[in-house]
Design goal:
This protein is α/β, with parallel strands linked by helices. Helix content is 22%, strand content 38%. The protein has 5 helices and 14 strands. It has a 6-stranded mixed beta barrel. The radius of gyration is 22 Å and the shape is elongated. The N and C termini lie far apart (51 Å).
Length: 220
């Protein structure tokens, strides 16, 4: 059987059916790309100028998956009571309030208390000194371990049947498949679909920034 066995109308119907099947398969895809967050710092303009000089503006080095967000050329050192970590990347644009996000392993190295909070929630946050090329500042209750979360648009939320602030579990895909609970859903028109895990979580599940995915699961 070849093309000549079908009329143009029959071929059109077959093509439409194939396109519909492809569309259905795509909509059934429940995989969410993973973004692995290494330690980084967000700075307010006042702290940027204290660390890098008066009137200084962050210089974008690489734009990130979330619209408008970028890793800058600028880095700082973090000094805690037990140790220090150098070359911590500054993310832009500037924030209303500075916030350092680290992993639990980092907190041990620095000797810094850091609660697991949602980004922007600095309740009981930790403190440390930040050193830049032009000066230093003391962050007072500005250090957290970011709670794992999923960025998505309202359209994504409908597809995954979740709501703003909902807590879900996600299952990683790979040789060390792992289920992470207490993952917060964050919804905005300004977001791009992505699950954010920190380095400790990614290492535990054997994930890298290359082709890593999770799926929302009802397993506990």
């Amino acid at each position: 059987m070849n093309r000549q066995d079908f009329s143009d109308e029959q071929l059109l119907i077959i093509a439409e059916r194939l396109l519909h099947q492809i569309s259905e398969k795509k909509s059934e895809n429940k995989q969410i790309p993973v973004g692995i967050s290494n330690r980084h710092i967000h700075l307010c303009q006042q702290d940027i100028e204290s660390l890098f000089g008066k009137g200084f503006n962050l210089v974008p080095k690489k734009y990130l998956s979330q619209p408008g967000q970028f890793a800058s050329d600028q880095t700082v050192s973090v000094v805690g009571v037990k140790g220090s970590i150098h070359n911590v990347r500054v993310l832009g644009p500037e924030r209303q309030e500075s916030q350092l996000e680290i992993s639990r392993t980092d907190s041990f190295q620095l000797g810094v208390h850091a609660p697991i909070n949602e980004s922007g929630n600095l309740t009981n946050a930790g403190s440390a000194f930040i050193v830049g090329p032009k000066g230093s500042i003391q962050l007072k209750e500005n250090i957290i371990i970011a709670k794992r979360h999923i960025h998505m648009t309202p359209e994504d939320a409908k597809r995954f049947e979740v709501t703003q602030g909902q807590t879900v579990s996600v299952k990683t895909i790979g040789e060390r498949a792992t289920i992470f609970g207490e993952t917060i859903i964050r919804i905005s028109d300004d977001f791009s679909l992505e699950c954010h895990l920190d380095m400790d979580e990614a290492n535990a599940a054997g994930l890298s920034n290359k082709n890593a995915f999770v799926e929302i699961t009802k397993e506990v």
